[in-house]
Amino acid sequence: MPSFDVLTVLPGLFSGFLTEGVIGRAIKSGKVSVKIHNLRDFTTDKHRVVDDVPYGGGPGMVLKPEPIFRAFDHICEERGKKPHVILTEPWGETFTQEKAVELSKKENILIICGRYEGVDERVKAIVDEEISIGNYVLTGGELPGMVIMDAVIRLMPGVLGCRDSLEADSFSDRGLMGYPNYTRPAEYRGMKVPKVLLSGHHKKIELWRKEKSIERTYLKNSELIKKLLKEKRFSKEEERIVREV
Amino acid sequence: MPSFDVLTVLPGLFSGFLTEGVIGRAIKSGKVSVKIHNLRDFTTDKHRVVDDVPYGGGPGMVLKPEPIFRAFDHICEERGKKPHVILTEPWGETFTQEKAVELSKKENILIICGRYEGVDERVKAIVDEEISIGNYVLTGGELPGMVIMDAVIRLMPGVLGCRDSLEADSFSDRGLMGYPNYTRPAEYRGMKVPKVLLSGHHKKIELWRKEKSIERTYLKNSELIKKLLKEKRFSKEEERIVREV
């Protein structure tokens, strides 16, 4: 069974994540194992101190190396092998869907949740990659840890039921945006569902969805459309739509 | 007091977020109010159904409009005014630190947690902006909701204590990466702290940190360095370092 170990100073933050929704069900049904480790359990002093002031001065506190190395040794022993180690870091490589696919093939992953102030640089001796989830500052690396696990676990075999999944289609494969969705009622507070979707005419519906998807993508990211056009990744019909928008 | 309302089908996912860490403390001490609303509480049928099949066919389920509009009406009435409404959406605008700063000045924010399959398009009539936290697919819009709240709440007055905060310095202001941090012990498992940091020589320490910050940034994002150089946003000393790396 694939496994995640998470090393954090705030294990309580993960309580909802471990029991609710798609991920909660995946853990409950044994599709994946997720174990949260409290960094403080790997300290040896009475006050269970995990951070200290930076050498050379400056603001903020730095996570000490010893508890992290001790936790790493413990997890390696418990799992019987060295996991793939990720450090969540505001200046790490930006997380993408391609990275999620790559990580979904790893057997054991350890996520060390960083803090914005920093982790003692020597910890990077055991880190395989530093990952950031985007260009914004968070209070800690715990939410990024959950985001990474969520994106990776949903790709694991048997995790997504058909109700949850959107089949990889030719739109999303090429990075095109989704088309507008509507469900019942056909009219609500004066707002109607586009007639074509009620027509039952599959060819027309498909064409309308293609138009909307290409139009939306063009408005948000015209570069992508130009790139796909250059690489001849549109069908003839799609190319005609592109020329129109 | 600034407030967040969150509309979700998985309220339990937020349990850790509301009580732990910096955000938990901010809520407890009355710096911000966060209220999680269960979308199912705004259904009127016995089975409390919140989604339905899409008009026109296709995979996945779509969040129905009525419970969302009913919840919106309820929240507007409860808060006495219309909140700023965000829909977490894989195809929305990408969240950034600038957006976090902008949102930290709003008084009332409502986050509607989308689902990957989609939300009935008519809901967008009440939505002010659609936000994505990055180019990856998640099981739902709840983690993005927490990421947005985390980034925004930490910027609110009185939320960050001096232990948590990293003063905005001239590095991060310009998008430069942080320098390596070290704390005690000076030697651990054969790995030593760079001598300069132990020297007590403040000028030298400052110079070393500048070098490391510029070097790291150059390796990850040389375009940014070129841009800052062009815009003359380096000091003379920094420019010399840039020429060297």
From TrEMBL, chains A, B:
Residues 4-227 form the tRNA methyltransferase TRMD/TRM10-type domain. Signal peptide: none annotated. S-adenosyl-L-methionine binds at G114, I133, G134, N135, Y136, V137, L138. GO terms for biological process: tRNA N1-guanine methylation. It is found in: Cytoplasm. Its EC number is 2.1.1.228. GO terms for cellular component: cytosol. The keyword Methyltransferase applies. It catalyses: guanosine(37) in tRNA + S-adenosyl-L-methionine = N(1)-methylguanosine(37) in tRNA + S-adenosyl-L-homocysteine + H(+). Keywords: Cytoplasm, Methyltransferase, S-adenosyl-L-methionine, Transferase, tRNA processing. It comes from the Bacteria. One of its GO terms (molecular function) is tRNA (guanine(37)-N1)-methyltransferase activity. Its main location: cytoplasm. The keyword Methyltransferase applies. Homodimer. Specifically methylates guanosine-37 in various tRNAs. Belongs to the RNA methyltransferase TrmD family. This is tRNA (guanine-N(1)-)-methyltransferase. It comes from Desulfurobacterium indicum.
